[in-house]
Amino acid sequence: MKVSLFIESIASGGAERQLVGLGNLLKKFNYDVNVVTYYNIPFYAQYLKENNIEYVCVPKAANKYTRIFHIFKYFQKNRPDIVISYLDTPNIISIIIRILGLRYKLIVSERNTTQNLSIRESIKFHLYRYSDKIVPNSSAQTEFILANFPSLKPKVRLITNFVDTDYFCPSTENKKTKSNLSILVVGRIEKQKNTLRFIEAIFKVKNKGYEIMVDWYGDKFLKDGMPTEATKYYLEALILVNQLGLETNIKFHDPTINLLDVYQSSDVLCLPSIYEGFPNAICEAMACGKPILAGNIGDNRILVEPEINGFLFDPYSSESMASIIEIFFNLANEHRDKMGMYSREKAIKLFSKTSFIMKYLELIE
Predict the structure, then answer these.
(1) pLDDT of residue 103
(2) N or C: which end of the chain has fewer CB within 10 A?
(3) What distances in angstroms separate CA 96 from CA 86, 156, 169, 201, one per listed residue?
(4) Is 168 exposed, middle or buried (0-12, 13-18, 19+ CB in 10 A)?
(5) Taking a C-beta distance cutoff of 8 angstroms, is the pair 163, 283 a contact?
(6) Are 184 and 215 in contact (CB under 8 A)?
(7) Residue 298: is its pLDDT beyond 90?
């Protein structure tokens, strides 16, 4: 059975990480799998190659005006039995191609939480009736769909993210006690991730005399090394860091394929986003035995138990964020270690790759 996993690109984001991981798991169940994109951002290309998964970029489909035509021609030629699409635009394209006459089983995946039921969002959800199954990856988005589009209920199946907890695991090295706090953030630098307010929070904590070091790993939306419209927010973040004198406290890094070392070398993961689906970064950091500081939003409330494996804050308040960071800083090392241990235990229970793939196989078969 031929399965095409369809997404905009295989860049470094959480949706992309889950999609290539799904491809690897399907391959192990002897499915003929390929990954299809229209933007050639090959961050996970080596991962796909190592796991013998075909990667196909349809470069002419990068043009938004002819995109549907070129993806239609590709699927018409390659005749997948099943298309699993991730993210809004690939979901809509996959549905339109079905409406235009190609026949394949279609599973669309919702990777975020809807913040505003705009006309575009409403059209998208109405088009979803032409899909076979709808897979939100968070309880929050599942509840949103069922509340606003109850007719879709028979198609909806919640499948949360998986983590390879054998790979993402705590470090075996003895960690030395440090006087400063190493905070890790993993995510794109954009408004959703709340970078500017987070920088303000770090400034407030530093002004109280705390030694803080932040490493932020994520895309900065540069094209050929030059700013684009999408980089404005990143440039604002750089300016704010310089204005507040935080150049030695906050470092922005390019995405890395080797996140394990990054997780293991940090004290705590912080995710300041104003909205999320089921955050990959939180799941992976928990698997690595790290406490979590995160906004009190969506499924973060399921993943983070305050004072047990981390803390929740109001992501719209830099004061709330700073207060939680200060509270965590003042915890004894033993308390932090217990939080990390509980994160690890919870990760093993919640993020099973076996459960993840079996749910997808059930939909496929």
Answers:
(1) 94
(2) C
(3) 15, 19, 42, 45
(4) buried
(5) yes
(6) yes
(7) yes
Closest CA to 84 of 42, 134, 120: 134
Domains in the chain, please, with CATH? 2-159 (3.40.50.2000), 181-350 (3.40.50.2000)
Please report how many Cα atoms fall inside a 13 Å half-sphere around the Cα of residue 263, on the Cβ side.
29
Instruction: Give the C-alpha separation, 336 to 346, whole Å.
Output: 15
Per the prediction, the chain carries an average pLDDT of: 94
- Predicted confidence (pLDDT) per residue in 100-148, tens digit: 999 999 999 999 999 889 999 999 999 999 999 999 999 999 999 999 9
Helix or strand holding residue 170 (H, E) = none
Tokens of 331: 């915890």
User: Within a 13 Å sphere around the CA of 11, how many CA atoms are in the beta-carbon half?
Assistant: 17
Under 8 Å between Cβ of 119 and 125: no
Distances (CA, A) of 38 to 61, 104, 110, 159: 5, 20, 19, 25
What is the C-alpha separation between 227 and 182, in angstroms, rounded?
Answer: 29
What whole-number distance in Å separates Cα of residue 296 and Cα of residue 294? 6
Catalogue the E-assigned strands of the chain: 2-6, 32-37, 54-57, 82-86, 105-110, 133-136, 181-186, 212-217, 222-223, 226-227, 250-253, 268-271, 292-295, 310-313
Confirm whether pTM is higher than 0.70.
yes
Q: How many residues does the chain have?
A: 365
Q: What is the largest CA-CA distance in the chain?
A: 65
Phi and psi for 170 in degrees, rounded to 5?
A: -65, 155
